[in-house]
């Protein structure tokens, strides 16, 4: 009898150790995924998995601070009703509504995991009705162009009554495929710009109170005030905007493209 109990106890202990090891391995796998995302260079575009790799290996997560809106429906996040979640298949930062789906992921032991609708459709072959099929507006140009696709891009501080006294930073972009328009995003990987300014006809003037890093765009009562991180960066933006305001594509070379 004692031999039977001892054997049973050893089996239970072995099962418990295996379960603990599996939990440790899973935690380490997720930590490595998160660590890779955290250590990625600030402002770099998210390296997305190829479609054929979805579910086969863990994605690199887009960091929360790199987006201010859902990367699927473009609705802004907030702390109460629209919080951030990660799709376990592609790594996008998405809202609860856009990630309210489950799919089995091979890299996670084929366990059902939270995924976005796009990945759910690809992984399961199921097509769900969508109410978000609509035309893109002028502010929706897809992900902001990176340095290779933009004539100018960097953070600029937004000043003046239009933005409030707090002066938030905006990710400002003049795309190569739309060189006479300035697009302002909340963060480098937001999918939709919150402001677009057709630069044609604007005057570029010095900033208020002689601030050497500030400058303004003025036209017919419209006034936008920006502040660059350095005077050199301000000078490049002023030259680019002056050329666009005159109807010419800003003459900025690849070496002059900016990222932050």
TrEMBL record:
It comes from the Eukaryota. Keywords: Cytoplasm, Cytoskeleton, Guanine-nucleotide releasing factor, Metal-binding, Phosphoprotein, Repeat, Zinc, Zinc-finger. GO terms for cellular component: cytoplasm; cytoskeleton. The keyword rRNA processing does not apply. GO terms for molecular function: guanyl-nucleotide exchange factor activity; zinc ion binding. InterPro entries: FGD1-4_PH2, FYVE_RhoGEF_PH, PH-like_dom_sf, PH_domain, Znf_FYVE, Znf_FYVE-rel, Znf_FYVE_PHD, Znf_RING/FYVE/PHD. CDD domains: FYVE_FGD1_2_4, PH2_FGD1-4. It is found in: Cytoplasm, Cytoskeleton. Residues 64-124 form the FYVE-type domain. GO terms for biological process: cytoskeleton organization; filopodium assembly. Residues 1-25, 149-246 form the PH domain. Its main location: cytoplasm. This is FYVE, RhoGEF and PH domain-containing protein 2. It comes from Marmota marmota marmota.
